[in-house]
């Protein structure tokens, strides 16, 4: 996979389309790789190998060189490879000679200065162009619907093949196995190109020049300057006008405004605290604050030696309990887990949670609704 990163990358397009000036500011910041990102890279390497192998290509198994390989990764990559193969077979039924590209560098610089990205899987056929993106992360549920990253890849693929194949529609799929999420969004070629000309390209020109207006929102999550961004601070500090009185003293409309911003407010405060902490660790002194050693718990210097000593004294040093479902799935693998324990698993009703109306989860049936139905 290419290790070069574009300033106006496909993966960050959701942010710089909404907030164009953030692109150049983020480009000045150092890239810090997380354990989650490295785990995702390992998963992508394994997926690439398995898909190419199923397609009959001679490829080297990377498993031994993967730092984060485990049974879950093996299962997820198997599911992804099988899904890709199913989509390839579906394309072959409609088109005699579809092209299948894996980990393909896609250039969409026609709309974005020096714009390029890497598509996990691109299937080019008459009528339908198919883009599939593997997301190994488990923290955030990703939707394909009007997803700018996927639309970037689609534009790059169109730039390569639109004159060779008679493409009329684009199907974009997010494959997120650890969240049991397969999200597909289909758009006509004309609609995609209209978006590229009217929304994508103008935003890219502003971003490339460091122009446009700063805008705060959910897209701030992966911004490198989110902790010190003044626009994000203004956006979140709007809540200060409510004085945080008891809910009984607030109007319904005021509570609804607070609800709409609560998660982002909590996230922002957390980012500020983490930034201030890291600066303090580096030597900065904040007026009215000091760096202290946090609470820690005792631990064994050597667990094996501790267990041996307790056993030699005639005691059992081990806890005995059934592994949790996640740990058991990792132990057995998803297929074996379902075979052995599928009939012994239940999913209790989840704790009530308030979410925006736009959330795709079905609304819970409350006691008040039951009363209305009975009457």
Description of the molecule:
- This protein is an alpha+beta fold and 375 residues long.
- Among the domains are: 13-208, Alpha-Beta Complex (Lambda Exonuclease, Chain A); 226-281, no CATH class.
- The chain contains 12 helices and 5 strands.
- It has a 5-stranded mixed β-sheet.
- It is globular.
- The termini are far apart.
SSE topology sketch:
Blueprint: H1 13-18, H2 22-27, H3 35-54, H4 71-94, E1 99-107, E2 116-124, E3 127-134, H5 148-161, E4 167-176, E5 181-188, H6 189-208, H7 230-237, H8 252-281, H9 303-312, H10 325-332, H11 334-341, H12 367-374
Parallel strand pairs: 3-4
Antiparallel strand pairs: 1-2, 2-3, 4-5
Structural class: alpha+beta
Regions with little confidence, pLDDT below 50 for 5+ residues = none
Strand content is: 5-15%
| Secondary-structure arrangement, i.e. CATH architecture of the domain at 13-208 | Alpha-Beta Complex
Could you name the CATH topology of the domain at 13-208? Lambda Exonuclease, Chain A
Instruction: Find the count of extended strands (DSSP E, 2+ residues).
Output: 5
Element string (H = helix, E = strand): HHHHEEEHEEHHHHHHH
Q: Between the first and last Cα atoms, what is the distance in angstroms?
A: 62 Å
The radius of gyration over CA amounts to 25 Å
Question: Which term fits the overall shape?
Answer: globular
Average pLDDT works out at: 89
Helix-residue proportion: 40-55%
Largest sheet: 5 strands, mixed
CATH class of the domain at 13-208: Alpha Beta
Number of helices: 12
Strand order of the largest sheet: 1-2-3-4-5
């Amino acid at each position: 996979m290419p290790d070069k990163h574009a300033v106006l990358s496909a993966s960050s397009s959701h942010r710089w389309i909404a907030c164009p000036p953030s692109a150049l500011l983020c480009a000045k910041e150092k890239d810090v790789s997380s354990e989650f990102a490295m785990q995702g890279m390992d998963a992508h390497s394994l997926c690439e190998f398995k898909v190419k192998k199923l397609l009959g290509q001679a490829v080297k198994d990377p498993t031994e060189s993967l730092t984060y390989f485990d049974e879950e990764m093996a299962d997820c990559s198997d599911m992804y490879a099988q899904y890709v193969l199913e989509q390839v077979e579906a394309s072959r039924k409609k088109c005699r000679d579809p092209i299948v590209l894996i980990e393909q560098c896609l250039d969409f610089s026609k709309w974005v200065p020096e714009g390029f990205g890497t598509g996990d899987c691109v299937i080019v056929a008459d009528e339908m162009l198919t883009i599939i993106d593997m997301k190994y992360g488990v923290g955030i549920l990703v939707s394909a619907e009007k997803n700018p990253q996927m639309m970037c890849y689609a534009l790059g693929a169109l730039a390569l093949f639109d004159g060779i194949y008679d493409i009329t529609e684009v199907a974009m799929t997010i494959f997120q196995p650890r969240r049991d999420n397969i999200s597909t969004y289909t758009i006509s070629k004309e609609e995609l190109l209209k978006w590229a000309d009217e929304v994508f390209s103008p935003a890219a020109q502003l971003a490339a020049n460091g122009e446009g207006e700063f805008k705060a929102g959910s897209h701030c999550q992966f911004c490198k300057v989110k902790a010190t961004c003044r626009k994000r601070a203004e956006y979140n500090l709007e809540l200060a006008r409510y004085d945080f009185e008891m809910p009984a003293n607030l109007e319904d409309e005021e509570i609804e405004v607070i609800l709409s911003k609560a998660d982002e407010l909590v996230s922002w405060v957390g980012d500020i605290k983490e930034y201030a902490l890291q600066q303090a660790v580096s030597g900065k002194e904040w007026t009215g604050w000091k760096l202290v050693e946090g609470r820690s718990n005792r631990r064994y210097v050597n667990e094996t030696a501790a267990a041996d000593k307790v056993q030699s004294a005639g005691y059992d040093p081990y806890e005995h309990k059934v592994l949790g479902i996640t740990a058991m799935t990792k132990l057995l693998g998803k297929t074996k887990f379902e075979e052995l324990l599928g009939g012994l698993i239940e999913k209790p009703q989840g704790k009530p949670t308030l979410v925006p109306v736009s959330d795709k989860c079905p609304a819970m049936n409350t006691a008040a609704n039951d009363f209305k139905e009975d009457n």
